[in-house]
Automatic annotation (TrEMBL):
<dbReference type="Pfam" id="PF00690">
    <property type="entry name" value="Cation_ATPase_N"/>
</dbReference>
<dbReference type="GO" id="GO:0005524">
    <property type="term" value="F:ATP binding"/>
</dbReference>
<dbReference type="GO" id="GO:0005886">
    <property type="term" value="C:plasma membrane"/>
</dbReference>
<protein>
    <recommendedName>
        <fullName>Magnesium-transporting ATPase, P-type 1</fullName>
        <ecNumber>7.2.2.14</ecNumber>
    </recommendedName>
</protein>
<feature type="transmembrane region" description="Helical">
    <location>
        <begin position="288"/>
        <end position="313"/>
    </location>
</feature>
<dbReference type="InterPro" id="IPR023298">
    <property type="entry name" value="ATPase_P-typ_TM_dom_sf"/>
</dbReference>
<keyword id="KW-0460">Magnesium</keyword>
<dbReference type="InterPro" id="IPR036412">
    <property type="entry name" value="HAD-like_sf"/>
</dbReference>
<keyword id="KW-0547">Nucleotide-binding</keyword>
<feature type="region of interest" description="Disordered">
    <location>
        <begin position="180"/>
        <end position="204"/>
    </location>
</feature>
<dbReference type="InterPro" id="IPR004014">
    <property type="entry name" value="ATPase_P-typ_cation-transptr_N"/>
</dbReference>
<keyword id="KW-0067">ATP-binding</keyword>
<dbReference type="InterPro" id="IPR018303">
    <property type="entry name" value="ATPase_P-typ_P_site"/>
</dbReference>
<dbReference type="InterPro" id="IPR001757">
    <property type="entry name" value="P_typ_ATPase"/>
</dbReference>
<feature type="transmembrane region" description="Helical">
    <location>
        <begin position="771"/>
        <end position="789"/>
    </location>
</feature>
<feature type="transmembrane region" description="Helical">
    <location>
        <begin position="801"/>
        <end position="824"/>
    </location>
</feature>
<comment type="function">
    <text>Mediates magnesium influx to the cytosol.</text>
</comment>
Amino acid sequence: MAWAPEAHAAPGAGGGSTLEVLRALASGPRGLTEAEAGDRLARHGENVFPGRRPASWPRRLARSLRDPFTAVLLCLGLVSATLAAWGTACVIAVLVGVSCLLRATGEHRADRSVAALRELVATTATVRRRPSRDAPPVTRELPVDALVPGDVVLLAPGDLVPADLRLLRATGLTVHEGALTGESTPVEKRARPGTGAAPAAAGSERPALCLQGSSVVSGTGSGVVVATGRATVLSGALPGARWRTRRPAGPFERSVNGIAWTLIRFMLLTAPLVLIAGALVRGRGLEALPFAVAVAVALTPEMLPVIVTSALARGAGLLARGGEVVVRRLPALHDLGAVDVLCVDKTGTLTEDRPVLALCEDGDGRPDPGVLHWAAVNALWTLHLAELPVPDALDEAVLDAGAAAGEEYGEEYEGVEALPCGPGRRLSTAVVRRPGDSRFALARTHLLVVKGAPEDVLDRCALAPADRERLARRAAGLAHEGLRVLAVARAERPVPGRPYGPADERELTFTGFLGLSDAPAPTAAAALADLTRHGVTVKVLTGDHPGTAARVCRELGLRPGTPVTADRIDALDEAELARLADRTTVFARCTPEHKARIVRALRAGRHTTGFLGDGVNDLAALHAADVGVCPRQGVDVARESADVVLASKDLTALDRAIVVGRRSTANIASYLRITLSSNLGNVIAMLVAGLMLPFLPMFPAQVLVQNLCFDAAQLALAFDRPAPGAGARPAVLRPRALLRFMTGFGLLNAAADLATFGVLVLAAGEDGFQAGWFTENLLTQAMVMVLLRSGRGRAPGPVRCAVAGLAVVGLLLPVTPVGAMLSMSPLPPLYYGLLGLVLGLYAVCLAVARGRWVSPLPRPFP
């Protein structure tokens, strides 16, 4: 993906001469005056990342109403109010209000947690300004948000680039642009633009530009600010960026919409059936309308928005309290539990972004510790004598490996001179002598130890052409295996009586090769094993060499297969890429657009896909994934675009979050199984009773109280403990599977209700019918809560209390004054005996059906 900073304040910011850029900005090397800076600050605004403003409470609440179940409840509430069924309308209003409040509170808490992470960015910058037009410039520290286009900023090692800069001067300046490009290697910067037209890209392809979000590794420089605030590349000023488009619906939204429409069809069918049956069979006409509305309400899982929000908010709260994971969007926790493919980068996620020694061998391919010895001598004295601003990571890796091997080279030699690596120079030379060695002292000789890129070192060795070609092939083979290869050579030279230079690096004796690889992250292997055990396939999307990525995967126990490179991806259409992505583990040499295409291809292949990224180059893939995950150290714009924020780039924390998401989904699925099967059974029984009986089987007020009791008890399901296997597989709410389940168990529930009707006709008569069915309904629903819950073993305290409460209300309410107010009469003792028989048979049937249908299946729905 190429980014063109056309939004910069200065025309030609990336190309053209320095004078042209300064003229376009009306600035100069001495900087702006304070008055000019004040005027520009008022015109351009503060240099702050725009981000999304936290939504207000009214907006959050209104956004919660877009939930389809909430919309269904609102429609039923309006119908109830129109029919003057104020009790039903008030209950529905309370349920909608509680659901919206819980969801808005959870999202507010997540936004507040993420806002705290924004403080992890630079706050000041070294700026050159003038008090007045004729005054000399003054260098001082200013808040980053006070920078304006035209300011001159000074850069030093360790500084974060505070805005988009065009370099005016650079001395050995290298910049880390991993947040923008994903590359871990620092990029050389120079003040003079390259020859030819400047490409429209960020980062290393514009060597005279330093972009906000990058950091200075070595060297010094100064630059003029060409863009601040919204105009910087980091702030997302990416013309035509695909990640700005609306994200496709995720698994949670698709599932909830599917379930909602299934229930809406049932409601649109059952309510007219009740009216038609009442009018044609019993001649009740419109007097049955309140009962029809009550039937529709009975079919609706009124507590679903509350249960869903409670279960997800509870899971998100558990993760947030551990300080490891912040879920910014509650439905993302369900989507995280549904993830079966996770796409990650290699650097910083699977590896620590530091090299370690993998092998050292001589020219014949045999292990040789002497190669490490001479390489460590070179690294030690290069670091001591060259006065590098930042130690070279490869030198540090060599020294660490030498120390681990017990090498003692600190006092064995004395350093004389060092010729370090530099721009266009891919090798370093350390000149040493051995103290007290009479042969060295008499002959006045020095030892040159050379280490660097194999091609450069071999060209300086005294080798026959065949040997040089053989060693070059060996170095290429090691590089193809994913190693960073260094060649080591040495030579003894008479003291020249002048400073050493590159001309002395000739006729060297080849010593051997070193191979270094990226150090695996300490928790990466265990995390990958856990993810695999939990049914998540990990795919590596990296800009590195395919051999390097494959080697890291093998070291971590991940089978890399045959890596696929970007050029092959470019040659495929979307359908072919979807098939290839499904069977490929490693994608190498990927640009940001390649990553986004791969993620979209995996989603097109019916995978629920997560993507872990932390830079501007990851925005497109973060937006394309079902769940975008960003570590806390990621750039602001990436964190703002992510659904989940991690405290660190640790896959172990992400695996735990996935398990929590699956358990939350299991509780939601448990509620849906219990509620919809019971509700469907009751509706079928109501329809049958309405056709068979000369009276209403239950009054609307009784239906409402029954629903209230059951709804209150169902809140406990959000606190259930799912079975240990609930986190073992991706969990998705599937409307078709739910329809099959509710149909099967709904018919079983209806059979129990119809058997109860027979008992009621036999033992209670018309006077006790409503009270008897009310009692049976609450008892069967209490039984279903125990037998169809997702957890195994003893139910937790909230569930046990809810079940006991349902049973007590069902048995005692008909004999209380409240029961009399609801037109219920006490039941004869014979009824309770026959009801116990019916409930016993129902429990046996439920246990058998559950064992055959639910137990063997690790997912929430069959």
